[in-house]
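seq as requested:
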Amino acid sequence: MPRFSIIVPSHGAAARLSQALDSVLGQSFGDLQLIPVCDAPGSPAASVAAGFAERDCRVTPVGSPPSAGPSGARNAGLRAATGAYVLFLDGDDLLLPGALAALDARLTETACVDVLYAEHERAPWWEGEPTNPAAPLLARAPEGAFTPAELPELTGVRLPACSAVYRRSFLTEHELAFPESHFTDLGWGGLTTVAAGRIAVLRRVVVRHRLRRQGSRLHLPGPHQHTVLDQVDLVLTTAAERALPADRVRALFEQLFAAVLKTASRPERLPSGHRAFFRRAARLYRHHRPPGYRTPGGSLGVQHRLLASGAYTAFRALRGANQVATRAGERLPRPRAVRNRLRYALALRRPLDPELAVYCAYWGRGYACNPAAIHAKARELAPHIRSVFLVEAGQAHTMPQDVDHAVIGSRRYWEVLARAKYLVNNANFAEGIVKRPGSVHLQTQHGTPLKTMGVDQATYPVVAARSGSYTRLLGRVDRWDFNLSANRHSTQMWERAFPGSYEHLEYGYPRNDVYCTATGEDVLRIRRELGVPEGSTAVLYAPTHRDHHTGFEPGLDLAAFCDAAGEDVVVLLRAHYFYDRGRIRSSGGIDRIIDVTAHRSSEDVCLAADALVTDYSSIMFDYANLDRPIVVYADDWDVYRETRGVYFDLTAEPPGLVTRTADELAAVFRDGSYAGAEATELRAAFRKKFCEFDDGRAAERVVRRVLLGEPPEAVPPVIPLADRVPAPAAATLVRS
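struct tokens:
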């Protein structure tokens, strides 16, 4: 029995086959059997092999039809093998001088291992330095023979079949064969890893794999690309059947799906069926994902999360997303200055402060939104936790006197961010902020999504161009431990838009608590502060931002609306938070228009309003908690839907009457139908779906769960919608 059987499939490599066979027969170690596997008698490769067989009795040619592919050729060679150990070469490969002698010595030294992994080099087809991809994989291996459990990361998945020697009796005992179809090295490497009991490594290059100018056949486009999923499923199913230890399964899972993601990230390889490939890959990922598996870091981890969530559109967009500058609202200072980098780095070396919480709202625009509401409740329920609010230098004067704050970019800013255990934001912290072990990041969001968000924006060119890098976005998502939702719709959309491993908190939005806790006196006081005349009907007009506009466009002649709607109507104009103030579009006097864009609290403005007119702003979801009339002014709905993208058809599920023109809008106020039976019925259905968790106790639930660490079952349950009592409207107070 020869020491080695070297199997050399030759399909498509006839021109180089003689070099491969010469490299074997020219070895100083001659106890071998050489098995060239040829297509058919009379083929160019068969003629080459026959000539070698005539000259050397150690050459045993066998046949395998081209239809059997590489796996069929290798299995045919295995059936003819008689050696104690089996080595596979491709027709493009060369066995380097002294390779068999080195392999023999190492096998003798390690005594009857099942698999001996060795290094190989990849040589460019024309010029350039060869690479040794196996070296890093083998560097950590023990010196002697060892079990796969001792080094789970070392599997055959990332190595070609030519980079190992296999004990033939081991292959026979476990009935191992190359899986049919393509990507057979992947399946073979996984199956031999699962079955192996003892392995060893040889830290020496024994094979030179010569790359082809035209590249690997596996990289060509076509339906064969789908078969990588067959190999992955086969290996992981086998691992499960053999009850492989968790560490070994995790390593196999990660390496196999790295191969899947390679194909998924190259749609040109699947001119048809790319979506089907991705969907099946996602199903396999979820089916085989080991319990407790944590995705890797970096861009690979981003792809893992998108695959796990089945986010096909986002995955494709991520691949080609331009690395453009992040929009102005998302640009926060990073510790670029040497002094700041040093300060931040030094602060990161200090322990976390378990009683320090840092809050930020709207990229530092002030004390507002969900972070402010949580901050206020934390001072009541968790007074031992010190709080620092982050604010831009130009907004520091707006902070309440009794709220400790740090100016963004200052020395204290970097210090508190480095040491705080709790970090609360309704947007995202700066790009350079590190997620420290033990820290807790709470993403509160700042609205219910009607328009597409996060990676879902990728397919809308206008907004995608302003969104910056999706890889960086998802890197920030990786810092989240908790993410707030005001309703189940939001939970589902956040999971799509911001795929990550965070925990969803379906607790409602703390900023909306006031809609259930404010009194009639609060409502009247706010109206006086805003200058709303007594006895008037205050209509809040809050249009959203248009990504296809360069600035704020009111979209409505407000003075004309007031004149047409009724003499008691006044308008509270609140532009999107991207703008410091509204720009009134008017054909006449504006004495009945109050610009409240700069007012600190959108909640106050909503409490003051008797009705809301909006287009597609998320303020409608918050305002619906007050159970007051809402009118949708959808004059450009089709344009907005096509340019921005939406999650549902607002005109089919509106919170009230839908109007398309300024005349229609004025008419529903003039005749009172804006608050009529139809509007009330629509609002009730809308509230049932979108006001699910906003019951006035959201902030308490968040503080107890996140800051006090109480278990989910201990937080206050959500009060049913029918049992809630919204803050009274001014008209109700007057009637009372």
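The radius of gyration is 34 Å.
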